[in-house]
Amino acid sequence: MGTEQDIERMAEQERRLCFARFDNAAAWELGIRIKALCESRSLALAIEVRLMRETVFFYAMQGTSPENADWVRRKRNTVELAQSSSYAVGRALELEGLSLEQKMGLPLRDYATHGGGFPIRVDGIGAVGAVTISGAPQREDHAIVVTVLAELCGIPLREVALD
Questions:
Q1: Whole-number pLDDT of residue 163
Q2: In the chain, which stretches have pLDDT less than 50?
Q3: What are the C-alpha distances in Å from 147 to residues 85, 114, 143?
């Protein structure tokens, strides 16, 4: 997929990957399922799920480093500000030939536009949180989050996957 197709598909992901309700128990379930998927793929990632800007789930798998937690923080900041996936923000900026710092004056030390951060949306409400991971290449980070969100939202993955 090209950049424009990625952006269109990610907009569709964000529209369709919504929950009827989302609370601390749902946040915990989301984090645990991402952890299980990563373990099944022998991946070491840092995983964070936030609800109303409060961290409800955080897990740093063996093999990660503090750098992964910092990437999670930076991607999550982007998701919470833009209410869009960090990868979608990055691909849109790529299309414009700009960085987040150039476009909005945001420091790259605190914001990252790499894949792995995704808004948690509730039908009729909008974005209520963010799920963010770090440890795999950015497109794979994004795909892991989408895979688990699709499963939890009852959306066939083939209908929303990038590739």
A1: 83
A2: none
A3: 14, 17, 6
- What pLDDT is attached to residue 141? 98
Q: What is the full DSSP assignment across 78-145?
A: HHHHHSS-HHHHHHHHHHHT--HHHHH---TTT---STTEEEEEETTTEEEEEEEEESS-HHHHHHHH
Q: Output the domain CATH number for residue 29.
A: 3.30.450.150
Query: What is d(CA 161, CA 6) in angstroms, rounded to the nearest whole number?
Result: 10
Tokens of 115: 């894949």
Residues with Cβ within 8 Å of residue 66, at least 6 apart in sequence: none
Res 1: pLDDT: 67
Range of the domain at 28: 3-160
Please count the structural domains in the chain: 1
Q: Are strands 54-60 and 126-134 parallel, antiparallel or unpaired?
A: unpaired
pLDDT score, position 11: 97
Name the β-bridge partners of 13. none
